[in-house]
Design goal:
Blueprint: H1 3-51, H2 58-89, E1 96-101, H3 107-115, E2 134-138, E3 141-145, H4 155-165, E4 170-176, H5 182-193, E5 198-203, H6 213-223, H7 226-238, E6 252-255, H8 257-265, H9 269-279, H10 281-377, H11 383-393, H12 396-436, H13 446-449, H14 453-489, H15 500-587, E7 597-603, E8 607-612, H16 620-630, E9 633-638, H17 643-651, E10 658-661, E11 668-671, H18 681-691, E12 694-697
Parallel strand pairs: 1-3, 1-4, 4-5, 5-6, 8-9, 11-12
Antiparallel strand pairs: 2-3, 7-8, 10-11
Helix pairs in contact: 1-2, 1-10, 1-15, 2-10, 2-15, 3-8, 6-9, 8-9, 10-11, 10-12, 10-15, 11-14, 12-14, 12-15, 14-15, 17-18
């Protein structure tokens, strides 16, 4: 291809880039508004949570922190989307090609070849030669050389590389003819997830240093055994399956970069031509120019659209899964609260019965003791002291303390038991969803979430304080009352003028009446004080349940906010999907309205699934053209009003293998375990994108 053709194609790319920016910008504004609404709803929930200062639990404090983190995360996402879009806008006039690959794969060598450099940037065998992004121009293209992947302690380098890849219109992925490595495949799959067009370059390693031209040609050509190189390519493509992707459409170019570099540094014209020819670098240059001339305009539109669609799709999936997890955790807490409430009522009845039983026992014991006491002390000036001795000997305060302390211990143990059960069940639910959902990212951390120490510490201190105060009364009160009784005996002096027998009879009767009244009043007072202590224990249990209620409400609102936001994001995604398909129809000079597509489901760089009206057929030739343009698989299915039928069609299984549960806040669709494999992982994401359902294993 002549250079002027490339320059003409690049001039057209800018016009299409402006169109892509406009479309993406409109969607970004809608997303920003949706995210803002969610942030405001979260802020209201936070403020309501803060108002609840009574019975505030440590778990509620943590939930409040989680709400703040979610709110702040949504704000960062909104800022990030806008920033990414503006970065692309600032480069409207540039067509960006990013060199990506494993450390020492030859990225810097390729840069030197394209720019005809002096070789200073080429690595000398050490890892991590390129530590930052380097930009340079070649034939009007902006080429970015980014840090290599897979180096020891190269995590930061990889983050820099992937951030740069987000802005690229075309990725050149370099690998070597060594055995394919997992780290290469993993990074390749991540680039595919970005939806970027890719040219894969395999740099053949053949040593030619210090060799004559004929020997060098022989050794290089020997390494260019196509059967061997194709086998390495096939081995690499096998990695795609475990990521639910297909890489078969990716063009592979085999080159020997060392020869291409030597061609630049050799003065002798014939040697230069030989090195250039055996390097096959011309094939790579032609492939880059060809793709840009044929598809560059579409790449520019697609780059802007995918800059919004990709993160939006991932956010929607995470929101649905987090919302379902929060709703599941909310139900777990609610079930435990209902159980605890039933237990609390039974506990209250049992506590009142135990107190009543103790009071009856104390009253009967004191009544029996009073008969003997009357005979021995009806005319005793020290009767009050003697009665106090009897009360102390009966250890009434200790008996009351034991009952109240036991009830307090039982309530404490139950709260701790519920706390442990809730924590364990939340852990189980989290593990359950990790196992069954497509991907797990949860908001509530169960390990950190359930710390009920505030109940078992502060609550016990409160009850202990009441018991102590009560014990003081239970010992002191009889003294005061007994003194009144004995003081009352002083009125017997008026009867000394009567007969001794009558006076003794009267004294016994009066003392019996006063003791009986005293015992009744004393036991009533004790019962009242014990009931107060019991109410404090119940109050502590109720406070615990109030704390659960706050957390239930918070989780419910959070799940609802996530569900509503996911629905809005989904609408934006489908609108973007439809837009890019219509652009593809227009690009290949086909009127898209001739083929009534109801909905477009899309995983950028992987697959677009077209939901068609019944009896509508798109010619296979047209599908192939769109597939080659978009560089992702294009498939069609017929739409349906029956959700389980449609989901089964999207996933590619029989209708009977899909069951939908509408009973929960986030609707679930179950698929049989035997039909789950990595090949349909992408299909599951498409089904979720359309239905807003959580697809889980049955």
């Amino acid at each position: 291809m002549e250079e002027k053709n490339l320059q003409f194609a690049l001039s057209e790319c800018k016009e299409l880039a402006e169109k892509g920016y406009k479309a993406a910008s409109e969607q970004e504004i809608k997303l920003r508004d949706a995210l803002s609404v969610a942030q405001n709803e979260l802020q209201k929930t936070i403020e309501e949570c803060r108002k609840n200062t009574k019975n505030r639990a440590q778990s509620t404090n943590f939930l409040e922190e989680q709400l703040e983190e979610v709110r702040d995360s949504l704000k960062k996402i909104s800022i990030g989307l806008h920033s990414d879009l503006e970065n692309l806008r600032n480069n409207l006039g540039k067509f960006s090609v990013t060199l990506f690959g494993r450390t020492m794969a030859g990225k810097s060598t390729l840069m030197e070849i394209l720019t005809e450099g002096d070789g200073d940037s080429i690595g000398k065998g050490a890892q991590r030669t390129t530590r930052d992004i380097r930009r340079y121009n070649w034939n009007g293209l902006e080429i970015m050389d980014v840090p290599g992947i897979g180096a020891f302690e190269g995590e930061k380098d990889e983050r820099i590389a992937f951030e740069a890849a987000k802005n690229a219109d075309l990725i050149i992925f370099l690998m070597t003819d060594d055995a394919p490595q997992f780290v290469e495949a993993e990074c390749f799959s991540k680039i595919m997830d970005l939806g970027k067009p890719i040219i894969c370059v395999m740099n053949v390693k053949a040593s030619i240093e210090g060799k004559g031209i004929k020997l060098a040609l022989r050794d290089v050509n020997k390494q260019f055994n196509l059967e061997r190189l194709d086998d390495i390519r096939k081995q690499f493509l096998l990695f795609a399956e475990q990521y639910g992707q297909s890489w078969t459409h990716i063009p592979f170019i085999y080159v020997h970069l060392k020869s291409a570099f030597l061609a630049l540094k050799t003065d002798e014209q014939e040697a230069r031509r030989c090195y250039y020819d055996i390097s096959r670098i011309g094939i790579l240059k032609n492939q880059i120019e060809k793709q840009i001339e044929q598809k560059g305009k579409f790449y520019r539109i697609k780059n802007f659209v995918d800059a919004i669609s990709n993160p939006t799709a991932l956010l929607m999936e995470n929101l649905l899964e987090q919302g379902q997890l929060n709703w599941t955790q909310r139900k777990t807490i609610l079930d435990k609260k209902h159980y605890l409430n039933r237990w609390r009522n039974n506990f209250l009845d049992d506590g009142e019965a135990r107190i009543k039983s103790l009071i009856i026992k104390i009253k009967n014991d004191l009544a029996r003791e009073s008969d003997l006491f009357i005979e021995e002390h009806f005319n005793d000036k020290n009767a009050d002291n003697e009665w106090l001795k009897i009360l102390k000997s009966r250890n009434i305060g200790k008996q009351c303390q034991e009952v109240i302390s036991d009830l307090d211990a039982i309530s404490k143990e139950k709260i701790e038991e519920i706390s442990r059960e809730v924590e364990n069940e939340l852990k189980f639910k989290s593990a359950f969803w990790k196992d069954k959902s497509l991907r797990m990212s949860r908001v509530v951390d169960s390990k950190k979430y359930w710390k009920w120490a505030f109940l078992t510490a502060e609550g016990v201190l409160t009850i202990a304080g009441l018991v102590t105060a009560f014990l003081g009364l239970s010992i002191a009160a009889p003294i005061g009352i007994a003194t009144v009784v004995v003081g009352g005996l002083g009125i017997l002096g008026g009867y000394l003028f009567k007969s001794r027998e009558e006076k003794e009879k009267k004294a016994r009767q009066d003392l019996k009446t006063k003791l009986t009244n005293y015992i009744n009043q004393f036991c009533d007072d004790i019962e009242d004080k014990m009931q107060v202590s019991l109410k404090e224990i119940i109050k502590n249990i109720d406070g615990f349940m109030d704390g659960l209620t706050v957390d239930i409400v918070v989780l419910e609102r959070l799940a609802e906010i996530q569900k509503n936001l996911a629905a809005k994001l989904r609408d934006c995604i489908l609108e973007q999907n439809k837009f890019i398909l219509l652009e593809a129809f227009q690009f290949i000079d086909v009127e898209g309205l001739d083929y009534p597509v109801q909905t477009v489901l899309r995983i950028p760089g992987n697959i677009s699934l077209l939901l068609m009206t019944q009896e509508t057929i798109i010619p296979q030739k047209l599908i192939k053209e769109i597939q080659e343009l978009m560089e992702e698989k294009i498939e069609t299915i017929y739409d349906s009003d029956c959700m389980d039928v449609l989901i089964s069609r999207i996933i590619g299984v029989e209708k009977e293998k899909v069951a939908i549960d509408y009973s929960q806040q986030v609707v679930l669709a179950y698929i049989s375990q035997e039909h789950l494999c990595t090949k349909i992982k992408t299909r599951l994401r498409l089904a979720q994108q359309y239905s807003k359902l959580i697809i889980v294993r049955e």
